[in-house]
Amino acid sequence: MLALQVLANGILLGGLYAVVALGLALVWGVLDIINLAHGAFIMLGGYIAYYLFTGLGLDPFASLPLVMAAMFVLGYLIQWGLLNFLVRAPMFNMLLVTFGIDVVLTYLAQLLFSADLRTIRPAYAGSNFQLLGVTIPWANLMAFAVAMLLTGLLALFLQRQRWGRAIRATAQNLGAARLHGVPPRFAYALTFGIGAALAGGAGTLYGVVAQLTPYVGVPLTAKSFAIAIIGGLDNPLGVIVGGMVLGLAEAFGSLWLGPTYRDAVSLGLLVMVLIVRPTGILGRTA
Amino acid sequence: MRSLAWIVALAAVAALAVVPFTLSPVIVQFGISTLLLAVLAQGWNIIGGFTGYASFGNSVFYGLGTYGTAVAMVKFELPFWLGLAIGAVVAVAFALLLGLPVLRLRGHYFAITTLALSEAVAAIIANLDITGRNTGLILPLIRGDTMFYELSLGLVVLATLTVLWLSRSRFGFGLIAIREREDAAEVMGIPTTLYKTLAFGLAALFSALAGGIHAYWITFIDPASAFDISLNVRMIIMAVFGGAGTVVGPVIGALMLSGVAEVLASYITGVASLFFGLVIIAAVVFTPRGVIDAVRKLPRRGLAYFLDTVRETRL
């Protein structure tokens, strides 16, 4: 029974992890930019949802689109006004600038929101239900469902929508995409904006099921890396695989080895996947 | 022109060398940590700047040097010099062994793997008895800031001379070829795996020596401070800010950024980290090729330099 409960916890956690990594994987896969501020975007989205809830009484699942819209604008502006100027510079420069953004956002969050632990707690936060002897919290299940929905919507957008296809074309061949009428600066800003919006959505869900502090950004960025690599970058659905693998590994890792080894499990997994299969579990073989 | 550069460099080293005898102890202490950061930035320059592999694992080598020295001195009661050598040997051996599988990965993948490895090594150290587990180790106390300062300065000079040699030797050209296009380098007959692994080992050597000196100077070490990822980020920032792949750029970057950080921290304590973040962003946007490049070209091209570099790197 315990194993079943841990399995359920791992799957619910894995779904959340999938959406946590989704924006990072999109930006990395399409723009070849590793956004070290991704976790800070998640943190910021979580705080926006928190203040919409405590200030206006807006339910986090209702405010999700608002948070995503706000984060989209922020992401769009950052790429358009800053990162677009560095696209052809060496790779380190982009890492450094996004690290700088992370430092600035973390500092501002500490200043504006203080370092206290915050959780978005709507009325249904503590309630749960039993299924086959397994306890499932409603909030976690809803977060899981929304996470899957967002991942699916992104996959559909990239597959079917005009601008989604333009984004994929940019990823494949910038020059050819330009010849076919895709304005690259707009395509880059759009992609980064969507990445930030997804981070905002992930932050809202994270704020419901976990605790927010200004410092959750860096560990979330690290986990997002691991998930994106385990799942591979070719397919947005890869993050579901990566998220599940990480969520289950952490859940069973803490059960069998003890909670202190929780992070070691995810890191060991990451290194193994990189050495054995660098394109990810779902990725094409090179 | 070339001899002028040598004279300037010698004068700079001489000026730095007399600091402990003329300036206050506070400045000497600031100098030691800054010089050790310069060594780290220069070590990263070998693998990151010359070879083009964005290593986030140099803090592992630093940590191994720290712990090698500390364990040798505390647990085996060996003299400092021997401990320093042991730390360096451990770190270099680790780099050579690890380099073989890890240096096959390219670009971001290499960066992330080295990042994960440093976390993993820190976790192992924190669980071993001989390294004092999570509580760390306390080294024998010694008063000698002047000695540590001159030692650090000597290490900066040694690292910089090594990089100078790289910039004119066959081995160094091989590394640059790997950075510019690894497949082409391989076709040209450069033994890429050997060269990359050696570069990794060389970076490990300097990082470990810096770690060993720091351990004895600071006298207390624990896993969190010895394997600090943000230290790795700082060495990259300093190297890139000064000029990755140049000879003196990383040292200048380390001196300038440490100076800025120190001034910010003492005058405007509260917002220091905010300004540090903004300084990083501004520096990378306006001088993407490093300060060295800007200083060299600014007098001739004036403000147009900034416009041109932005145009070059813009999408």
Structural write-up:
Chain A is 73% helix and 3% strand. Chain A is an all-alpha fold. Chain A has a single domain (2-276), classed as Orthogonal Bundle (ABC transporter involved in vitamin B12 uptake, BtuC), CATH 1.10.3470. The termini of chain A are far apart. With 315 residues, chain B is mostly helical. Chain B has a domain at 25-227. Chain B contains 16 helices and 2 strands. In chain B, strands 1-2 form a two-stranded antiparallel sheet. Chain B is globular and about 55 Å long. The two termini of chain B are 37 Å apart. The model of chain B has no long low-confidence stretch (mean pLDDT 87). Chain A binds chain B through residues 28, 32, 34, 82, 84-93, 95-97, 99-104, 106-108, 184-185, 188, 222, 225-226, 229, 263-264, 267-268, 270-271, 274-275, 278, and chain B through 48, 54, 101-102, 105, 107-109, 111-113, 115-117, 119-120, 123, 233, 236-237, 240, 244, 271, 273-274, 276-281, 284-285, 288, 310, 312-315.
**Could you describe the largest sheet of chain B, including whether it forms a barrel?**
2 strands, antiparallel
Helix content percent band of chain B: over 70%
User: Which descriptor suits the 3D outline of chain A?
Assistant: globular
Mind telling me which CATH architecture of chain A this is? Orthogonal Bundle
Give the CATH class of chain A: Mainly Alpha
Helix share bin of chain A = over 70%
Intertermini distance of chain B: 37 Å
Category by helix and strand content of chain B: mainly alpha
Radius of gyration of chain B: 20 Å
Count of DSSP-assigned helices of chain B: 16
Number of helices of chain A: 11
Largest sheet of chain A: 2 strands, antiparallel
**pLDDT below 50 for ≥5 consecutive residues: which ranges of chain B?**
none
Lateral strand order in the biggest sheet of chain A: 1-2
Number of strands of chain A: 2
Q: What is the mean pLDDT of chain A? A: 86
